[in-house]
Amino acid sequence: xxxxxxxxxxxxxxxxxxxxxxxxxxxxxxxxxxxxxxxxxxxxxxxxxxxxxxxxxxxxxxxxxxxxxxxxxxxxxxxxxxxxxxxxxxxxxxxxxxxxxxxxxxxxxxxxxxxxxxxxxxxxxxxxxxxxxxxxxxxxxxxxxxxxxxxxxxxxxxxxxxxxxxxxxxxxxxxxxxxxxxxxxxxxxxxxxxxxxxxxxxxxxxxxxxxxxxxxxxxxxxxxxxxxxxxxxxxxxxxxxxxxxxxxxxxxxxxxxxxxxxxxxxxxxxxxxxxxxxxxxxxxxxxxxxxxxxxxxxxxxxxxxxxxxxxxxxxxxxxxxxxxxxxxxxxxxxxxxxxxxxxxxxxxxxxxxxxxxxxxxxxxxxxxxxxxxxxxxxxxxxxxxxxxxxxxxxxxxxxxxxxxxxxxxxxxxxxxxxxxxxxxxxxxxxxxxxxxxxxxxxxxxxxxxxxxxxxxxxxxxxxxxxxxxxxxxxxxxxxxxxxxxxxxxxxxxxxxxxxxxxxxxxxxxxxxxxxxxxxxxxxxxxxxxxxxxxxxxxxxxxxxxxxxxxxxxxxxxxxxxxxxxxxxxxxxxxxxxxxxxxxxxxxxxxxxxxxxxxxxxxxxxxxxxxxxxxxxxxxxxxxxxxxxxxxxxxxxxxxxxxxxxxxxxxxxxxxxxxxxxxxxxxxxxxxxxxxxxxxxxxxxxxx
Length: 687
Fold this sequence. Notes:
The chain is of the alpha+beta class. The chain contains 17 helices and 40 strands. The strands form nine sheets. The chain has a nine-stranded antiparallel beta sheet with strand order 27-26-25-24-32-31-30-29-28, covered by helices on one side. An eight-stranded antiparallel beta sheet has the order 14-13-10-11-12-15-22-20, with helices on both faces. A five-stranded parallel beta sheet has the order 3-2-1-4-5. The longest helix is centred in the last third of the chain and has 18 residues, at about 490-505. The protein is globular, with a radius of gyration of 27 Å.
């Protein structure tokens, strides 16, 4: 076994690998960029080497610097994690040439599976079923359009060298193909250095089911069952679970053997994932169905019928450890990183296929810095509050949170938007669903937008709770997933008022004039609060009664306001409702987290904002920090509301900036490739 390894990655996966290495008494070396000098993964490793600037191309993608760091520190092997260089055959070969063990498959296997077109040709020879499509080398746009027309719409354009949902577009009609192809190729070129694409028939209502495989240097192979990764946005996974609902033992074996055949065809070594598109011959149906917001029982209920797994088609093979590997660890009781280290050191696989068993059900949620209600726009900022449910980290338990951040850390625009992974395990899917919802309710993040409440809505939705899974689940359930307000204005206002009164009480001194308890010799004291709630200005009125009681009128409700602060949460009673909430103030905004949901409300102080401008018309600003990829207009152009004006890249994804109103472009204020800050003015317009 190795004595020291270098981890060529950052964030959560670097911390994950380091945790297993420490349990195995293996020393670890971290590498870090300028932006990550104080990052968690640097502190949890035994040594750390600085390798360059904040942008990945200046640090985590510079494999020569990483190999030099490994040699300088005496590391025997390099673990690439996922992303960055994990599927770069040149890096894997360079490690071997330098006498270092690459903890992953051989470069030849990465190369064989790295190009989607070539890998599908290889799978066709191996007898693995494929989706109808074009995987050829002719990349002439006219030729690609011709093939798309032949296959029949809708089609999926996919970067041949891609992954992680980047360089991927669904095209519904021929007229949209050209623009979609250009955008797809540009994103692919920026992300992978190649704009080659393949075209496939877009399967209607597909499920995305993947098989975890492992191989060793002695020719042994096993599959560690499946994961259902159908819940996606922008072709990126949101929730993953194992085992796949509706999977029969016979189909599990068929898919597992096909995945092993794929791995064997390229002499695969280590952890890999074979991804399949799966058709659904039986669509789930509801009678009355489980009500929205309630968790449906898993399997066998009279209310619904879980869709079974039908025909499956090879999609791609990821030649690395997957983000969602903890759900496989949860149902098998295994440490997949430990398996990686043992196989890379020359050991045989620890178990045979007959020795592997499934125990219970596991679900993973990716906690991301983004705004789901604004087209999942990436967010950056500081984790001013990062409160977790009772959990373990990087080991197995009913609730597990794997993260590479701590409270106070900054989520920067340079890397992926994922903050943490929340994994739950239960005896049944029903129990796992309940644990996931409870854990999400206890996960409190203040300082930037996240998808935590959106994930709760997904878990509570009819489709997910009833296991009616496919890649269109999010758009199908959008009415109950987006722009939801579970707590409401009365509860939010009550929480903000209660917090304000407690803060004022804490500032009181022995001076009687410091007290703000509303006392007066005669009459009642009436106090008005001004708030902003979901973009609207609202008011609340608080009356101090003679007996010391409080009466609140807010959001169309009025009645006694009673509250008390416990060790962590606050107990509130107002408007016939009693609830417990964790309440945090950040600046003027009050963040409220309760079992029913979470919300925020802004306290308006008119004196503090006196004289401030409300902004200028005709300005178009960057909604997030990022790089200007392209402008679709020039000075003097007339534009219409909703027309695409520019494309920005942030957190490895492209985002189109549209015109907020009709007008004429006056001036472009940045050049292509410029890095801009959030709120920076991109161009000026006149009405």
